[in-house]
Amino acid sequence: MDKSIEAYFVETFIRKNRRDRIMLELTNPRKRYDGLDRFCHQAADLLDPEKVVMKANNLENLPGFVMFMKTHDETCTILSPNGNVDGQKLPFMEAVRQAILCQDAAIIVGNGFAVVFTEPMKGGHDKYLLTETKKKGTW
Q1: Which phi and psi angles does 9 have, rounded to 5°?
Q2: 32, 21 Cβ separation under 8 angstroms
Q3: Of the four, 8, 43, 84, 122, which is 20 to 30 A from 32 by CA?
Q4: pTM of the full structure
Q5: Helices 19-27 and 3-13 sit at what angle, rounded to 10 degrees?
Q6: Tell me, what's the pLDDT at 119?
Q7: Given a cut of 90, is residue 124 above it in pLDDT?
């Protein structure tokens, strides 16, 4: 897997005080699962709140997110502790479908944005749309 995807995600969307540890875990094959597993229940503590544009457990149904997907039709990489999903490169809309079906955390990394799905719990996944520069009302 291309480690630059992990480096981009960590440097762009993770809180500064959590970057070193997450980067070490994501780039070490023995610790990768633990690093990705942190997003199951700790996403809110790891993600830079300045980059969060939308958060909802039904994110994929929100008109703003649907518009965002339509305007960002590109190939993305999925990071997940689920080995069947981890490393897949898919068109954005298909990556979102895979993340919804995944029974684990999933991170979709695109050009200038990321979408984080926490582990499904009662009520669904918490889902976050993050962009490099927070732009309200654009979508």
Answers
A1: -60, -50
A2: no
A3: 122
A4: 0.91
A5: 170
A6: 83
A7: no
Token pair for residue 57? Answer: 């457990």
Report helix, strand or coil for 8. Answer: helix
Instruction: Tell me how far apart the alpha carbons of residues 29 and 15 are, in angstroms, rounded to a whole number.
Output: 22
Total Cβ atoms within 10 A of residue 114: 23
For residue 41, CA distances in Å to 12, 13, 75, 121, 127 come to 20, 17, 27, 10, 12
Calpha distance 131→139 (Å, rounded)? 12
DSSP state of 17: G
* pLDDT value, residue 1: 45
In this structure, are residues 136 and 69 in contact, taking their beta carbons and an 8 Å threshold?
no
Q: What is the pLDDT of residues 36-80, one digit of tens each?
A: 998 888 899 999 999 999 999 999 999 999 999 999 999 999 999
Helix runs in the chain, H state only: 3-13, 19-27, 32-41, 43-46, 63-71, 92-101
- Regarding predicted confidence, which is higher, 45 or 133? 45
